[in-house]
Amino acid sequence: MKTVTLYTTQTCPYCRNAKHLLGSKGVRMKEIDIQAHPGKREEMINRSGRRTVPQIFIDDAYIGGFDDLAKLDRQGGLMPMLA
Questions:
Q1: pTM to 2 decimal places
Q2: Which residue, 8, 15, 4, is CA-closest to 37?
């Protein structure tokens, strides 16, 4: 499986939804809490161009936020990207 990286905060409901969706698929994630590690916020912005969380990557492929992840899953594209 590929590396899934999520930039998150502890209080973000969309972050929890993304972790739940990926967890339900058996996906192991690398979570980067940008509140606990403030320097990682700039890394997230540089990688994604966005300031909101979650920001999700599969290897180096940028997925987007939770809505983008959920849409990718509904369209059947998530699992092939993870294979």
A1: 0.95
A2: 8
Alpha helices (H) along the chain: 13-24, 39-48, 66-74, 78-82
Query: Stretch 6-25: mean pLDDT, rounded?
Result: 97
Whether residue 76 contacts residue 26, with contact meaning beta carbons closer than 8 Å, is answered with no
27 three-class SS: coil
Positive or negative torsion for Cα 11, 70, 63, 51: negative
Predicted confidence (pLDDT) per residue in 23-71, tens digit: 999 999 999 999 999 999 999 999 999 999 999 999 999 999 999 999 9
35: DSSP letter: T
**Kind plus residue range of the DSSP H or E element containing 6:** strand 4-8
